[in-house]
Every structure is written in structure tokens, then in C-alpha cells.
Amino acid sequence: MTRDTPTKDVAMTETKFEPIPDPRAAAPVLSVEDLSVSFVTDGRRATVVRNVSFEVRPGETLAIVGESGSGKSVTSLAIMGLLPPRVSRVDGRIDLAGRELTSLSDKEMSAIRGRDMAMIFQEPMTSLNPVFTIGRQISESLVRHLGLSRAAARAETVRLLEKVRIPNAATRFDEYPHQFSGGMRQRVMIAMALASKPKLLIADEPTTALDVTIQGQILDLIKQLQAEENMAVLFITHDMGVVAEVADRTMVMYRGDMVETGTTRDVFHDGRHPYTRALLSAVPRLGDMGDTDIPGRFAIVDAVSGERIPAAPVVDTVDRAAPPILSVRDLVTRFDVRGGVFGRRTGAIHAVEGVSFDLHQGETLSLVGESGCGKSTTGRSIMRLVEPVAGRVELDGFDVLDLDGADLRRMRRSIQMIFQDPFASLNPRMTVGASVAEPYTSHRLGTHAQARDKVADLLERVGLAPDMMSRYPHEFSGGQRQRIAIARALALDPKVIVADESVSALDVSIKAQVCNLLMDLQESLKIAFLFISHDMAVVERVSHRVAVMYLGEIVEIGPRAALFGNPQHPYTKKLIAAVPVPDPARRGIRRDLDVRELRSPVRPLGFLPPERRYRTVSPGHVVMEDAR
Known about the structure:
Low-confidence stretches: 1-12, 17-21
Structural class: alpha/beta
């Protein structure tokens, strides 16, 4: 068994879809008039969507965009009749193919859902039942809505799985959701939504949590199936790059109101509302950074006034002549695979295999790659949150892998971590002030009064008011919670911060603000960042250097401008090609990306990785050559 590099299966071409007939010539599939939605909380009724009106016609894609809390997902749930009736009220008119929906009973709506309209949710793992096979879950809809026999439903389910490009569909019919990758689970959700050939498909953030390559495949798939079935698609997202590639028309929502609507081209090139301009200004575009290796702050537009807030240039604080603050050599991390009656070792997951790099003070090195490539395990191995099996890690004079007990605890004062989900990493029972102060007090760096002063200073540094320290995590927005997580990481004055997908789940405007904050902190405190991400457009803006990982190995590493301007490895080219381009002219483009899943990192007992050779492309820019 050999450990292949992806040299022959990442080819990418671009093709044009057949043009869809002008949707304006047909009657609308969905017509929404003066839709308002309100909820009762603590005895008070709060309106979260106000007087929204729009239409979607056959073969047309309408994108609803806006940040979290704008009302876009509530709008889709109201159309589907999925809001809880006891605490919600829906006013206005919703027509689906000429049938008014708001007056229908639960039984009548249940018959329509899955047959005439269907929905793809953001997180497929929470939408799929973990105790039933994916085949049963899809075929159940066919039996219920189309009256097919079990045998006919199975045959049709296999056909649908093949249509959404699930490899070995017939054998995977009897597998469970946990046996599929994130991208493949999303394909299962699409197959389920399309089972009864609905007139309307609602896609609610279907690609937000996916890697950039998987996202590109899902967007291609939705466009292809729409062209084949002439479906109306309501696409809900906060990613303006995705909007440009999929939407004919765009509707912008802000705090429950529809603030702008029009063709996607007009909204992108002539957006009038300040919030529209704020969204567009926050979208990173590949190539904007040119040939500089210094990060650049995001441009920010005020969502209320529409005024552009000038972004000061980033001052380069990297002293490349000094010894690196972090040096990693031949790092190896593996996890045992056990099987059989007695749970014996049958193999190992080679999560990190021979990874080496240096990180200087004040520098940002980004690790990029798809889920499962080993980038998060690399960060956790460096911090000894998981135990490596081999290699050498030197951090600020510490030999990290030889430390234990009190020495390991002291080492962690020099390196801290920011996790992807701040809500999961903050204790919901502790106030924000207590959470931020916890590292400071647990390391006994000062009195409680000094800790309180430290917390107040840190909250101000990350753009929050000191009087917020008495609040709890649920009282903050996602972006504010991530700022709190950053403040907690700064409590010990670390020299290195591992930012593990720290902005991936944030809205585009909040993402820009948090990235700017990280660059401000780096400039003032000379912090080194190991920035782990799959978002190539963000990585290009925030990085000094970039390392691309595939199956636990670094296949290419170099200065940011060299790697993006002259990518050498096929996998690097694939990642860059998959990034959504915020240009409406690409509406009809399909990338034709390879749809196969990332190869398994599981190896049999006794497997010896082949020796790797690297070729120097330019100073500091090296690429892995084919295994021999």
C-alpha cells in the first residue's frame, strides 16, 4: 500500500451550463406578499421579519443574503411551515404554485413538504436521523409522496444517489450518516430534497460549514440539477461570493427588513443601501493582495451610514533574522484503529506525518486544506492537547515533547488556542469576566483585583466594553463571543496563538472585523499566529506564509505571494480554483471539480511512509515531488 500524492485526480475545467429559459415568461412558483413573523418571548411579542415580498419563478435562483439575525432563515422556515405554532405568528400571504399556504392545516402542509417544495439545511448531520440508513431515509419520502413500492423506492433512491455523485451508490444505500463525510452527507440531503422532484428548492446555508472544494462541488451540483429539472431555488446565505455564482436575483435583508433587491449584477455593481455596500466590501477576493507578503486589513463600510472606514496598512513586525519562536521538525501523530472481538490494533490513522516548519515572532503562518488533512491535529499536537508519537517541537526555548507536569503547564503560558466555535468553548454557567480571567487566576499571576483590571483591559483591546464582564455567553452575538475567546487567549500574554478555524463560522462582515482585530493585536503585541483555515481568500489576506496540507503532510509551503501567484502542487491549484469568485459574470460557470472524497489516512500495522523529496521553486517556496 502506498501513500499517494494527488497528482492525477484534481484536474479542473470550467464549462458553461445550457442557458435556462427566461423565468420572467412563466408564472411564479413561489409568491410571498407582506410576510411578517413574530415570536413571543418573556411575555412580549417581537417582530423579526417585517413586510417582506418577493417571487421566484421556474428555473430561477433568488438569493436572500444578510448576517445572522437578519431574518433570512426565519423567512424560509415560515414558507415551509416549520415555525413552532405556540410561540410564533406568521402574517401575510405565501402562494406556492397558486396555492395559499398560511391557511393550510399541519396535515396538508406535511403532504406538500417534500413533494412540492423541499429544503436543504445547513448542518446535514443534525437533519439526518443517525439510527436509520441513508437509503431508508430517502426511500421513505418516495413511498410516502409517490406511493412507490419498497423495491421501486430502493431502485429510485440508488438512481438519486448516483445523480448527486455518491460513489458506489448501491452499496452505500445501507450505510449510516456517520459513515459519510460532510460533503457526502450534504449530497445525501440534496438527493432527499430532490426525491419527489419539487417545484421549489430552499437551500439554507447549504455550504457554510463545508471546505472550499466541497462547497464548489455542491454549488456545481445544485446548478446542474436546477438546469435539468427547471426548479425554482431560494438560496439563503451570507457569502457574497457564493451569491455571485448561483443567483439570478438577490434580496438583501438587514435586521428583519428587506433593504434592497434586484438582479445580482445590479446589486453587486450598483448596490445602493449602506448595508449592501458593507457586505460587498467585506468579501475578500483572490489576487487583491498582489505580490506583497505583508497581510492587509479588510476594508470596512459602516452598515448604517455607508461611509467607508479607511484601513490602515499593516506594519510588518516579523524579524526573519532572529531565531523562530516555534520550530517543528518531523512531527508525527497517529491514532490507533482497533477492531475484532478483542479490540486489537488493526491499523493506525496517520493524521500528521513528517510535518516541519518554523514560525517567527510577529508572523502568521496559515495551514490550509480540507477537513481530515491533519491541520487541526497539527495545532493540537504542538500544544500537547493530543500526544505526538515522534518529532521535535521547540517553543520559546522549551522542548515541548519532553515536558510534563508543572513544566508543561508553564509552557502553555507561551501558546494559547482560539477554537472555531466560541459558544462551545465558553462555559455557559460562567460570566464572561470569569471565563477571561480563569487562565490568569489559575496560573496565579495576580490577585482577584488585578485579574479584574486585566479582564477590563483585554475586553477593551478586543472592542468590547469592560462593563460586559458580568454578562453570560448567550447574551452575546457570534462575533462578540469570538472576541471574548480572543481576549481569553490573550490573558497569559502568549507569544504564539493557534487560531483553529477561528473565523470560519462567522458572517462575512463579522469575519472581516475579527481578522482586522487579529492583525491589530499582532502589530501591537508581536504575536505569532498559526492560522488554521480552509478559506483560501481569507488566508491570502491575513498570512505572511502559507502551508498546504494533504493527508497529514505539507505538500507545498512558501511566502503568501509566491504560493498564490505561482502554485505548483496539483492539490494547491485545486484549492485555489474552488474559491467562489464574487463576480456575477460567472453565474453560468461550472468548475467540474473532482468529486471523490479525500483518501483515507488509515494505514495497516507496520506501514512505513515513503521518503519525501521537496523541490525549491523560489526562495522559501518548496513543493513536494511525486513519491518514488
